[in-house]
């Protein structure tokens, strides 16, 4: 008696559009588009595969959910390489913008404010967004206007390098504003 071992973990990937190539296209009828972009009409998948093989190309299903499914005759290896090349290029050109935070207080002294300003300007020049926050403690919450003045002065000093993306707003006990770097010409 032979016992088969069935794994709980199935390592097979779900069906991807890459999987629907040549013999894996198992639809009864498909709309065929040739390598020049001309429609050849609705044909059986076997007939479409023969046309693709005659042209020394692949039959690729590009729209499996359409009625009838759309298949294109193309060089699949070249197509997949171009897609990967575009993805690499987009990834290389994309820049991740992070949100840094600067904590101020209502009673901040001039020197402390200048140190935080210098750091904030550096972050903005690097292309990061900066969240400027003032946390009110205890009775300081009665003087939100003083905190707003501190943030407005801070934002005004950052005006050369950054612009205000979200103006100062009180959220609970914290007054926050968000600065974004200015676009470079």
From TrEMBL:
Family matches, as HAMAP family: IF_3 (MF_00080)
NCBIfam families reported in the protein's UniProt record: infC
Role played: IF-3 binds to the 30S ribosomal subunit and shifts the equilibrium between 70S ribosomes and their 50S and 30S subunits in favor of the free subunits, thus enhancing the availability of 30S subunits on which protein synthesis initiation begins.
Oligomer and partners: Monomer.
Limits of the Translation initiation factor 3 C-terminal domain: 97-182
Keyword Cytoplasm belongs to the record: yes
Subcellular location: Cytoplasm
Protein's UniProt name: Translation initiation factor IF-3
Originating organism: Faecalibacillus intestinalis
């Amino acid at each position: 008696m032979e016992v088969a071992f069935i794994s709980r973990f199935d390592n097979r990937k779900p069906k991807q559009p890459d999987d629907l190539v040549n013999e894996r296209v198992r639809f009864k009828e498909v709309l065929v588009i040739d390598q020049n972009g001309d429609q050849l009409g609705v044909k059986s998948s076997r007939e479409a595969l023969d046309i693709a093989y005659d042209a020394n190309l692949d039959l690729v299903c590009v729209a499996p959910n359409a009625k009838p499914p759309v298949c294109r005759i193309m060089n699949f290896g070249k197509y997949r390489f171009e897609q990967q090349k575009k993805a690499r290029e987009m990834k290389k050109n994309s820049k991740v913008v992070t949100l840094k935070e600067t904590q101020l207080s209502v009673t901040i002294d001039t020197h402390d404010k200048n140190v935080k300003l210098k750091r904030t300007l550096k972050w903005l020049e690097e292309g990061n967004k900066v969240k400027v926050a003032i946390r009110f403690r205890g009775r300081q919450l009665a003087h939100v206007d003083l905190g707003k003045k501190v943030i407005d002065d801070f934002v005004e000093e950052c005006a050369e390098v950054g612009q205000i993306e979200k103006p100062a707003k009180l959220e609970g006990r914290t007054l926050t504003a968000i600065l974004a770097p200015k676009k470079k010409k």
